[in-house]
């Protein structure tokens, strides 16, 4: 393996800015302010405040942040300055989602602006997810300032070719507070037997915890997939096209599609 091509590193200031600013860090808190989960996401509609992430980032066997009465979701959008830790700017709700075992995609919608940033730090991995770090912070309901959101240019993951170069972005649990980049290649595809459509893309890299839900771009800077899971040295990416039905559901939804609201 060429270590110069396949590497995990902190991004330099010379990286393309526009695509990177579409990436956000995602944090899930209990009602008591306890950090229960973290991951990454990408903005796909800045005007409506919609972001795409993996369902398992906001829903696991231990918590379900689709129930907004029990959990809160915070976003820290990436900025121009890649050497400065991004601040927690927004509170979100899950407005549409698939199950983790299926497509593993969720749509988040910004519902409030964080007025007082939690002061205990930005990297939950540094102190452990069981530590109560975010006990109190102010949130203002929208309408608010969405200027920190920048949308990614959408591509088509199902049209990728074997060996094509890809770039992932996200917040590795072992990578500190700054955004991390992972270079990889398309290693294969998984096809849904019922629809005969590409349901997953295999990538030749093993991403670390915290990067789940993060965007995957092709060489032209288009968003083509999001990171779903890793098995051994293979990452499974979900083509961005699989989220379009969820996006439409989110746009027409008049209420939060939470775990409790569905029952």
Task: Give the SSE layout.
Elements: E1 8-10, H1 17-20, E2 23-30, E3 35-45, E4 50-53, H2 55-58, E5 71-77, E6 90-97, E7 106-114, H3 124-127, E8 139-141, E9 165-170, E10 180-191, E11 198-203, E12 215-217, E13 223-231, E14 234-239, H4 244-252
Antiparallel strand pairs: 1-10, 2-3, 2-5, 3-4, 4-7, 5-6, 6-7, 7-8, 9-10, 9-12, 10-11, 11-14, 12-13, 13-14
Summarize the structure.
This protein has 263 residues and is mostly beta strands.
Mean pLDDT: 80
Q: What structural category characterises the helix and strand content? A: mainly beta
How do the helices and strands follow one another from N- to C-terminus?
EHEEEHEEEHEEEEEEEH
In percent, how helical is the residue content?
A: under 10%
Q: Please give the order of strands in the largest beta sheet.
A: 9-10-11-14-13-12
End-to-end CA span: 49 Å
- Choose one word for the global shape: globular
- Tally the beta strands: 14
What kind of sheet is the major sheet?
6 strands, antiparallel, barrel
- Contiguous low-pLDDT stretches (5 residues minimum) are 1-14, 119-133, 255-263
**Helix count, DSSP H or I runs of 4 or more residues:** 4
Cα radius of gyration in angstroms = 17 Å
Tell me the β content: 35-45%
């Amino acid at each position: 393996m060429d270590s110069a091509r396949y590497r995990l590193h902190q991004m330099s200031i010379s990286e393309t800015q526009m695509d990177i600013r579409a990436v956000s860090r995602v944090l899930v808190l209990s009602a008591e302010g306890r950090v229960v989960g973290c991951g990454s996401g990408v903005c796909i509609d800045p005007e409506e405040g919609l972001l795409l992430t993996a369902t398992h980032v906001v829903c696991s066997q231990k918590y379900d942040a689709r129930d907004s009465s029990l959990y809160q979701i915070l976003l820290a959008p990436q900025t121009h300055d890649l050497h400065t830790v991004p601040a927690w700017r927004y509170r979100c709700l899950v407005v549409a989602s698939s199950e983790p075992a299926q497509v593993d995609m969720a749509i988040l919608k910004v519902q409030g602006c964080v007025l007082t940033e939690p002061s205990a730090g930005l990297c939950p991995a540094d102190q452990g997810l069981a530590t109560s770090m975010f006990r109190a912070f102010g949130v203002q309901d929208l309408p608010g300032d969405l200027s920190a959101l920048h949308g990614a240019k959408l591509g088509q993951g199902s049209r990728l070719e074997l060996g094509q170069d890809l770039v992932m972005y996200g917040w590795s649990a072992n990578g500190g507070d700054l955004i991390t980049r992972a270079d990889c290649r398309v290693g294969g595809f998984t096809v849904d037997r019922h629809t005969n459509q590409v349901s997953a893309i295999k990538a030749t890299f093993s991403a670390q915890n915290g990067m789940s839900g993060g965007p995957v771009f092709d060489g032209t800077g288009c968003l083509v997939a999001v990171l779903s899971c890793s098995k051994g040295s293979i990452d499974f990416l979900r083509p961005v096209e699989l989220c379009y039905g969820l996006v439409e559901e989110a746009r027409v939804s008049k209420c939060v599609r939470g775990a409790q609201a569905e029952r």
